[in-house]
Amino acid sequence: MVMERARGRVRGHARGRVLPRPLIAALAGCAVLGGALMLLPSGGPAAPPVPGPAARAEQAVTGGAPAALPDLTALIGDREAFVRAHARDGQAWAQLGSAYVERGRRTSDAADFPRAERALRTSVRVRPGGNAEALGALAALANARRDFPAARKWGEAAVRQAPTRWLSYPPLLDAYTGLGDYKAVRRTLERLQGLRAGATVPAVMARTAGVYRDQGRREDAQAALADAAARATTPAEEAEWQYRAGELAWERGEPAAALAHFETALRLDPELWSARAGQGRALAALGHTEKAVDSYRAALSGQPSPQYALELGELYESLGRPEEARAQYAVLRDRVAKEQAAGVDGELLLGRFEADHGDAESAVRRLRAEWARQPGLDVADALGWALHRSGHGELALPWARRATDQEHGGEVRSALYAYHRGMIERELRMGGPARRHLAEALRINPYFSPAGVPAAQEALAALGEPVAGPPN
Q1: 231 domain residue, yes or no
Q2: In a domain, 26, yes or no
């Protein structure tokens, strides 16, 4: 009908004069287009197509947000195919390297880290200037390997190249934290928060929460993570922030609240294995030990982290199952060896393990070397504990103080650090300080360790109540 009316109008005009053929064709085309538009559904323009797995992961990786594991694998396959045909595309190489870093971190498959390094160094080589994306990803890779001096180098280079790019700052914050440089952490966080996007991006809120946690500001940290979860744009991103909120609740000694966060994270992202391990930790604290074992086993099946193997082994020991504990400790040693072959520094974890379950003297040697290379608070605490376990209490106490005294940056409220200091002080017959720090450990988190909690309770009972001094 529309077409016929248009033709009629053309014929009417033609009675007076002949129209050019191109004009006739144009009028007819407009009539056809108008008819087609009339057939379109009303209500505005069509919605944009839903991004596929690779596109979702690309948006996450380039936007500094967590991505789901299947999406990361899809992105890796897509970028691998792309760089085979476009070998000098520095941005594509940087995206590929970043995806490898994130997948390796999420799965504890350290084989992804050498792949990431090759991709990122290729990106820097083919695009040596203006490539803060690759430099920041190299910093994130170094952090994942616990190589904090290298992370600092790459992170500072990324910030120099693009000082207004917020994505360069979180890896640098992690590097300074690992090196125990808390003044630099504060300074860098202030610069990040001063950027236009610095206070509104969920990933920035989450990293800010980590700084607040290290400063002992747990309520502020929890609020920042709640804001990050509320602003998350994908299920995978919200799951990550829910998991971190669960970790904070766990450290506060609230296993039921922690469990709720972990289970929310797993509903959003069933392959977030860190949340599955957190679930095991919380279930054990609540007395559901067999369910806890199942959760740890599930976590290890998807992410064979040596840290999870250590936690499960210690849970088995607390349940009187030494053979199964030893099997997990063998898994730990095997996984650390594989990670070290891929450039991951496992000395801190090995030092902690050897101090409690193996050769304490070797733990001291490992941790002294680790401190010389990257002097973070976690290394100071572990070294003090290893010295205590090897019978050097006098040498141990300054390290325990460093981990817990604010003058050294030890503002984090850690039940484990307080427990270690209290036990060292008890060995040195410092009854008052020992009693205070052991009680503090149990007050911060009454479930902090399957072995440490009963040991702290026993030590407190042996110390008895403080003796009142003579009246003035």
Answers
A1: yes
A2: no
Provide the residue range defining the domain that includes 241: 209-285
pTM of the entire predicted model = 0.88
In a domain, 245, yes or no: yes
Domain-located, residue 74: no
Q: How many CB atoms lie within 10 A of CB 88?
A: 11
pLDDT per residue as tens digits for the range 28-74? 343 333 433 334 444 555 566 778 999 999 999 999 999 999 999 99
Please say whether the dihedral angle defined by the alpha carbons of residues 295, 296, 299 and 300, taken in this order, is positive or negative. negative
Number of C-beta neighbours around residue 12 at 10 A: 9
The 10s digit of each residue's pLDDT in 255-307 is 999 999 999 999 999 999 999 999 999 999 999 999 999 999 999 999 999 99
* CATH at 217: 1.25.40.10
Torsion of CA 291, 295, 296, 302, to 10 degrees: 160
234 close to 65: Cβ distance less than 8 angstroms: yes
∠156-157-161 over CA atoms, to 5°? 115
Query: CA-based angle 412:418:420, to the nearest 5?
Result: 125
Owner of token pair 């990786």: 61
Look at the chain and report how many structural domains it folds into.
1
